[in-house]
Amino acid sequence: MTTLSRTTTLLAALVAGLAGLIFTGGAASAVTQADAAAQLSAAGITWSSSGGCTTQSNSTCTSFSGVRQATIDGAKTLKSASGCALNITGGTEVGHAGGTYSHETGYKFDFARTTCLTNWIHNTYSYQGLRGDGAPLYKAGSGNLYADEGNHWDVTFYTCGC
Question: For an engineered disulfide with 63, which of 34, 87, 93, 118 has Cβ 3.0 to 4.6 Å away?
Answer without folding.
Answer: 93
